[in-house]
Write a structure and sequence with these properties.
CATH topology of the largest domain: FAD/NAD(P)-binding domain
Number of helices: 13
Largest sheet: 6 strands, antiparallel, barrel
CATH class of the largest domain: Alpha Beta
Oligomer: single chain
CATH architecture of the largest domain: 3-Layer(bba) Sandwich
Radius of gyration: 25 Å
Strand content: 25-35%
Number of domains: 2
Shape: elongated
């Protein structure tokens, strides 16, 4: 009989953290990972740089987490960003703090984080079994007593026993890394409710070919506003970019959470870009008046070079319907008004979102009302714990989601 003190299903960020900490506390730990190596998704996060956490204060952190950030207060009190930075230093990963409080490994390589965490686990006594897919929980009365699974290569089936099982399988984003939703099925077999899941921190598709014409253009210091069925639903300030299918970049990914939900509800969604967010209408109008007066003999299209990236100029002319060869001093007040409105409200109709394969995180998952927030243990089955993205908790980009994974994993391990 194969028996362990603790079985951890999933060898990602949460799984490795829970495993190493459990082993340090004296448990005989087995990690079961369905891929050929642990940490596949962790190794590509943050565009391969791994934004491991954020230095935001705890209250702000909790406010940014949806749908119930308060659930994390106990976990964050146990193990928060300062503790995580100290932990990584202890296992040989120095960190740096960048703009917006984002914390990265000093070397800028996510794969180094995976290597160090895996090494720490093994040195702590953790057994990591790869290419093993857990198919079922073994339950007895109201307790978990083990797992049943299959070796992906040999097809040999195994029952492995433990009265402590942590499910840390992640969501369904980046399924090629092993996040295929297996954990949801395991949780459902134990009676847990799974809140509807959809991709988040995901690029968006837009109507027409306007975005395709701007493919590769990056915009900085702009404000994006989301309008759903004519009502303002959210906004963010920062950077974004265009692709052949639509829009992406930090502010788009952050706002995608509310947008994807609206897409699922068949609502009309407009993404509006304020290209001159530092100027209010009056200041922008004064700026345009000055430009048209100072460059009165130059054609409109040339004057626009001082206002816009080159690739945006044909779009601006097309949308405002102002004659590109019209001299600056001939621009009427109505035309100037049209240009000002366009600069403050360059908009796109959102028609869809990219698939889970391109999403950074999953919204939805295990209903946190069914999990003890102080221990991460199931309220339905004794000995069953959850950690990481499988829980219905998500946050914007910036290191917040990995901190959730690490904190809930640490708390689960601490309370086994």
């Amino acid at each position: 009989m194969q028996k362990y003190d603790t079985i951890i299903v999933g060898g990602g960020a949460a799984g490795l953290m829970a495993a190493g900490h459990s082993a340090e506390l004296g448990s005989k730990v087995l990690v079961l990972e369905r891929m050929n190596r642990p940490g596949r998704k962790l190794g590509i996060t943050g565009k391969g740089r791994c934004n491991i956490t954020n230095t935001a204060p705890m209250d702000e952190f909790i406010r940014l987490v949806q749908p119930n950030g308060r659930f994390l207060r106990s976990s964050f009190s146990n193990f928060f960003s300062d503790d995580l930075i100290d932990f990584f230093y202890r296992i040989g990963v120095k960190t740096v703090i960048e703009r917006g409080g984002r914390v990265f490994p000093e070397g800028g390589k996510a794969i180094e984080v995976v290597k160090r965490m895996t090494k720490w686990c093994k040195e702590s006594g953790v057994e990591i079994r790869t290419n093993f897919r857990v198919k079922d929980l073994i339950l007895e009365d109201d307790s978990v007593i083990g797992v049943r699974g299959i070796d992906v290569n040999s097809k040999n089936k195994s029952d492995i026993y433990s009265d402590k099982v942590i499910i840390a399988t992640g969501g369904v984003s980046y399924p090629a890394t092993g996040s295929t939703g297996d954990g949801y099925e395991l949780a459902k077999s134990a009676g847990h409710k799974i809140n509807p899941v959809w991709p988040s921190l995901v690029p968006l598709e837009t109507e027409g070919n306007k975005a395709k014409q701007l493919n590769g253009l990056e915009l900085r210091n702009i404000k994006g506003t989301v309008w759903i069925d004519g009502k303002k639903a959210g906004e963010d300030f920062g950077e974004m970019s265009f692709t052949d299918f639509g829009i992406t970049g930090p502010i788009v990914l952050t706002l995608s959470r509310i947008i994807v939900q609206a897409i699922n509800e068949n609502k009309e969604i407009i993404f509006s870009i304020d290209l001159k967010s530092a100027l209010d209408d009056k200041k922008l109008d004064n700026r345009l008046l000055r430009d048209f007066n100072e460059k009165g003999n130059e054609p409109f299209r040339k004057i626009l070079t001082g206002l816009l990236p080159h690739v945006l100029i044909p779009i601006c002319i097309q949308d405002t319907k102002i004659d590109p060869d019209k001299a600056g001093h001939q621009i009427t007040s109505n035309e100037r008004k049209e240009l000002r409105k366009w600069l403050k409200n360059f908009n796109f109709k959102i028609t869809g979102h990219r698939p889970f394969e391109e999403a950074i995180i999953t919204v939805g998952g295990i209903n946190t009302n069914e999990v003890n927030q102080k221990t991460m243990e199931s309220k339905l089955k004794k000995g069953l714990y959850f950690a990481g993205e499988i829980l219905d908790l998500d946050a914007p980009t910036g290191g917040f989601n990995l901190q959730i994974a690490f904190s809930t994993a640490w708390t689960a391990a601490q309370n086994l």
